[in-house]
TrEMBL record:
It comes from Candidatus Vagococcus giribetii. Keywords: Hydrolase, Pyridine nucleotide biosynthesis, Pyridoxal phosphate. This is Kynureninase. Pfam families: KYNU_C. Gene3D superfamilies: Aspartate Aminotransferase, domain 1 (3.90.1150.10), Type I PLP-dependent aspartate aminotransferase-like (Major domain) (3.40.640.10).
Length: 423
């Protein structure tokens, strides 16, 4: 899409005045003298989220175990609120555990190797927890990782080659696990195309949505993946370690979950405490242990905002404000050695911009001391996420001014290149 931007501060301020999402910024705990650009790693706290957490604490105080009479179905409630973000049926989504534990659950279900089909296909640049889980499951099934994990290598270390993925869908592949948005380059892969190609060959395929959910629009009724997993503390603003999402396509509801636990038992007989597992035949049947209600409560408040707005409006602003940031990088920062490693094409760009510089780590450290919160990813990427719900255009402009100053005045030279910080 063609857009016209300007380089002045006045232009940024005018964009903020015209932004029909600007009222939602007031719902977040914006810190004075700080510009938060790391919502792709941990979203900011919102007032609705904190209110729901406070309400849950009060229920614990005042009701004790009596609250469990409805809270034992809380994961189903949150799942139904989250389902619209991927255009899935409410009973295809549940909230449980972490991304990694949900990968283990999905693979324990769908990876049933045979003599001819025994490989799991992955890429080599996804977030490593996915690979750790894949390797673990393969070992549990008695295979060598080198033999049973098929790795499709990136041609450049930044982007996945979809043609290579399809070419790798050979008869020995049982399951494929891929990211939807790459954490390092913000690349969006074509889930629909890859799912269709996998299914033509009798291969199950699942997606990691961690850097996609709440940032881009997705339509699982169209894509029809077999499963998907995601965290909820990035763009969904669920807070530290908030419970993760798990999608199971309804065509697989009859399958037995690979990992059984009492919260996957039928609701009707769960508290009869029978010794034989009775599978609840929807996504909630893939739950394992007792839900972490305090880690779900903030999500209820956050999802109310998402469902009020709808993903199309959120995505529209996200695309515009990330394009604005890239424009400023092109016009103001390139002469100082900056570039970006993500696509400029809307359909291929997630919700963050991957700023690159040879001194990225030291620049990121200097940014933090100059009131900007970014994150750093090896070897040379500073991820900047202008979040549609709470980042202003003026803040984007000011971040670029600070980035220019840090290199122009060589402020980064005051910092060690030895990595000590998390972000």
């Amino acid at each position: 899409m063609s857009r016209t931007f300007e380089t002045s501060l006045e232009y940024a301020k005018e964009q903020d005045k015209q932004d029909d999402l600007r009222k939602y910024r007031d719902l977040f705990y914006i810190q004075e003298d700080s510009i938060y650009m790391d919502g792709n790693s941990l979203g900011m706290a919102s007032k609705p989220a904190v209110e729901k957490l406070d309400e849950m604490v009060n229920r614990w105080k005042n009701e004790g175990v009596i609250a469990w009479n409805d809270l034992y179905l809380y994961a189903e409630k949150i799942g139904s609120m989250m389902a619209p973000l991927v255009n899935a049926d409410a009973d295809e989504v549940t909230i449980v555990g972490s991304t990694t534990s949900n990968i283990h659950q999905a693979l324990a279900t769908f990876y049933q190797p045979t003599e001819k089909r025994y490989k799991i296909m992955v890429d080599d640049i996804n977030f490593p927890t996915d690979r750790y889980a894949v390797d673990s499951i393969v070992r549990l099934k008695g295979y060598d990782v080198e033999e049973a994990v098929k790795v499709i290598k990136s041609p450049d270390g930044e982007f996945i080659d979809e043609e290579a993925i399809i070419a790798g869908m050979t008869d020995d592949v049982a399951v494929i696990l891929l990211p939807t948005v790459l954490y390092r380059s913000a690349q969006i892969i074509d889930m629909k195309r890859l799912a269709e190609e996998a299914h033509k060959r009798g291969i199950y395929i699942g997606f990691d949505l961690c850097h996609a959910i709440g940032a881009i629009e997705m339509d699982f009724k169209e894509v029809q993946p077999d499963f998907a997993v995601w965290c909820t503390y990035k763009y969904l603003n669920g807070g530290f370690g908030s419970c993760a999402g798990l999608y199971i396509n309804r065509k697989h509801f009859e399958m037995m979950p690979g990992l059984n636990g009492w919260f996957g038992n039928k609701n009707a007989t769960q508290f009869q405490l029978k010794q034989e597992f009775e599978h609840e035949k929807n996504a909630s049947g893939w739950q394992i242990g007792t839900p972490s209600v305090f880690n779900m409560a903030p999500l209820e408040g956050s999802l109310e905002v998402f469902n009020e707005l709808g993903m199309p409006r959120i995505r529209e602003k996200s695309l515009h404000i990330t394009a604005y940031l890239m424009y400023l990088i092109d016009t103001k920062l390139k002469k100082f050695g900056y570039s970006y490693g993500n696509s400029t094409v809307d359909e291929k760009r997630g919700g963050h911009v991957c700023l690159q510089h040879d001194e990225a780590y030291r620049i990121a450290a200097a940014l933090r001391d100059n009131g900007v919160v970014p994150d750093f990813r090896e070897p040379n990427v500073i991820r900047l996420a202008p979040i549609a719900l709470y980042t202003s255009y003026e803040e984007v402009y000011l971040v670029v001014e600070i980035l220019e100053k840090i290199v122009k005045e060589k402020i980064y030279e005051n910092y060690s290149a030895e990595r000590t910080a998390v972000v």
